[in-house]
Amino acid sequence: MKRGVLLPTFRSNADDALEAASLAASLGIEGVFAYDHLWPMGSPERPALAPFPVLAAIAVREPSLIVGPLVARVGLVSDDDMVERFRSLALIAPGRVIGALGTGDKVSEQENVAYGIAYDKSDVRRSHLFSVASRLRDFLPVWIGAGASATNEVARSLEVELNLWDKSAEDVALEATNGPVSWAGNPLSDLEVQLDALEQAGASWAVFSPKVDVHRLGAWRSSSGN
How many structural domains does the chain have? Predict the structure, then answer.
């Protein structure tokens, strides 16, 4: 199981994100990821960096790291634009980009409204999700953020990975019976036990929020030697 960290991108500049990525790379952590929000959830007065420029800068500076948004939200830009953003990142970091996608939800809807971006009905958003994911999987590993059963079915129909947010190891194991899964969320106090449980449940990745102790994350080694 590979390990990842979400970068501190709710900032007015990228200094903290670049520093966090450098530290993750030095500790042997395999990947870094960036939120795709127009502001931190519930805090519209605070800044948020766009994920793709930050990830591109990190991909150049840290050639050992796999990078990706977590998750890029369909509907904020056109399907063609979304595909080209990933394609451009993949040109900078060939073989080191994960095409993680999501539909957004009622909480993130307010971001669309504030910026005059249409927030389509769930079936329309899933149609965009299917369109983008089906194009990305030709040249990238694709993750789809888990949600409603119909959204999860998009991942299963395309045979791409389902990313579970803050679910228990038991939930991960259950979903892993249906296809490949990755996990993202918050660290527990006993991080090493949490990592062992997620690996045993079948998660291909465990990606933690910025509050994780990256030194402990870097020190963890699975029984398989990852």
Answer: 1
Domain-located, residue 82: yes
Paired sense of beta strands 161-165 and 2-6, if any:
unpaired
Question: Per-residue b/e over 141-153, b at no fewer than 16 CB within 10 Å?
Answer: bbbbbbbeeebbe
Domain with 47 in it: what CATH number?
Answer: 3.20.20.30
Question: How many H helices and E strands in the chain?
Answer: 9, 9
Task: Indicate left, alpha or beta for 166 from its phi (over 0: left) and psi (-120 to 50: alpha).
Answer: left
**63-85 pLDDT per residue, tens:** 999 999 999 999 999 999 999 99
Label the pairing between strands 31-34 and 2-6.
parallel
The pair of three-digit structure tokens given for residue 152, joined into one six-digit string: 């999860």
Residue 179 covered by a domain: yes
Look up the domain containing 77 and give its range: 2-219
pTM score, whole prediction = 0.95
Q: Which token pair is 185? A: 């969320």
Per-residue pLDDT tens digits for 162-209: 999 999 999 999 999 999 999 999 999 999 999 999 999 999 999 999
In a domain, 136, yes or no: yes
Q: Do the domain assignments include residue 129?
A: yes
Q: Are 100 and 69 in contact (CB under 8 A)?
A: yes
- Residues 6 or more apart whose CB falls under 8 angstroms from that of 19 comprise none
